[in-house]
Amino acid sequence: MLFMGIDVGTTGVRTLVCNEKGEIIAESDVKLKNAVCLNLPPGYSEQIPEKWWIAVKKSIVEVIGKMHGKGYSPHDILAIACDSTSGTVIPIDKEGKPLYNALMYNDARAIHQANIINDIARDFTEKIGHGFKPSDALCKILWIKQNLPSIYKKTYKFIHAADFITGKLTENFSVSDESNSLKTGYDLIDRKWPEFIEKKLKISPELLPGVVPSGQAIGEVTPSTARELGLVAGISVRAGVTDGTASFISSGAYREGDWNSTLGTTLVVKGISKRLIKDPLGRIYCHRHPDGYWLPGGASSSGGECLEKIFKDKDLGKLNLMVPEYTPTPMFVYPLVRKGERLPFVNPEAKGFVVGKARDEYELYTAYLEGVAYVEKWIYEVISQLGAEIGNRIYTSGGGNKSKPWLQIRADVLQKILVKTNFTSAALGCAILAASRTFYTSLMEAAKNMIGEKEEIHPRLKYADLYGQRYDHFRKLCRERGYE
User: Fold this and answer.
1) Domain limits for position 125
2) Over the range 452-482, which residues count as b (16 or more CB within 10 Å of their CB) and which as e?
């Protein structure tokens, strides 16, 4: 049997089809064209949802064509699932037509609305363990209510980006998943929309979608959509997840205590916990795992962006070759290249620093790699202090995996085994999710059987004390700057 995953990203759509073993049969990447709305006020971020659908259709058609070329048929596809950006929200009418542009995941206009919600919903935020941010969908819905009353009055439902695509496939725009609904204020403990939304914000629950666990059936591909895209009517469409959760699913982490570090522009961590992890500082928040567990996670403002900015004109391959000759360095770097940090500590005024003078660019480069590893270690210490179990293996994904010396530094600093799978992507995570309640009985079973070969990077014990001492000094330097 085959399973399709659709990842609707900020700049493009990736569609992937794999079998029950996770072997990739066909995939397609299509760039979004003219989706981004320009000339917006500072802090605003909007896209045109119909442009997503155009790209999704093209991507699916390409994948189906590639499947035919390999002897497969759309009849082999058992289920489809979709992910997209977390916190993106769209007001639609009863036919599923957008009434306004999508307010994107990084749209921060709703500062006033976030303050209102956090003030009136303190009992709820204490219950779930995190507050609301201006970029959260609920804050943006309140912004629309207060600033675009004519749009608000016409709205049938406020839905998320992934809901829009599943709605296009099934003509059911009224159901969302627990993952995307988190930032709209859904109560993941009691699994219902909390009363404060209706009683205090005066937002009717009728304007919000019904919510089901990720992986549950939402509908089937309609005959008209099947004809247009070359699919088969009746293929099951399953409730999706956010893009971050989809990437986590594909990382190889599937048991309680498993954690994944995604090292791209920023450093994002997510794991599986039996208990809800509450962080009064808001650094960590929890999604719901479809199998009943919790998915605590958070994102640092630090990460690979420091290499893009500091060494943008350098040959990173050449720099990487010299890293083993310089570890561990006598330098200490906090690898922020923009103001503000959110994990492992919260400080909107925080700035990066470099302590020590590099002998050459190779030593400076190595020190930045070490700095990111120190931040990663600090994050896992925070998570452990909050009560989460962390095993001896950290699954790793993202662009940072391309540097083998960086993987080794991270393993040495963490003193944990890093596990790198051959292929990770949000689209694959959605395909695994599509299989989780159709071919398999759970997401954990699907992930266990569908993740490909893994490479392990073991920590070198001889570096445990050396990096332990340097890490302690790194933390001391941070405390001196008020970073705690």
Assistant:
1) 2-245
2) beeeebebeeebeeebeebbeebbeebeeee
Classify 355 as helix, strand or coil. strand
HSE toward the beta carbon, residue 394, CA cutoff 13 A: 29
Determine contact, residues 49/164, Cβ cutoff 8 Å: yes
Q: How far apart are CA 477 and CA 79, in angstroms?
A: 52
CATH number at residue 391: 3.30.420.40
178 and 118, same structural domain?
Answer: yes
Model pTM score: 0.91
Both tokens of 480, joined, read: 């001196």
Q: What is the DSSP letter of 207?
A: G
Residue 444 belongs to some domain of the structure? no
- pLDDT for residue 422: 79
What would the pLDDT profile of 12-23 be if each residue is shown by its tens digit?
999 999 999 999
- CA distances to 137, 141, 255 from 102, in Å: 11, 11, 35
Where among 245, 261, 294 does a domain terminate?
A: 245
Same domain, 330 and 471: yes
Contacting residues for 219 by C-beta, under 8 A, at least 6 apart: 166, 169, 170, 171, 172, 175, 237
Query: Do residues 230 and 359 both lie within one domain?
Result: no
Question: Considering 225, 245, 265, which residue would you say is the last residue of a domain?
Answer: 245
Give how far Cα 332 sits from Cα of 146, 199, 326, Å. Answer: 48, 51, 13
Residue 296 host element (H or E): strand 294-299
Q: Which residues contact 95 (CB under 8 A, 6 or more apart)?
A: none
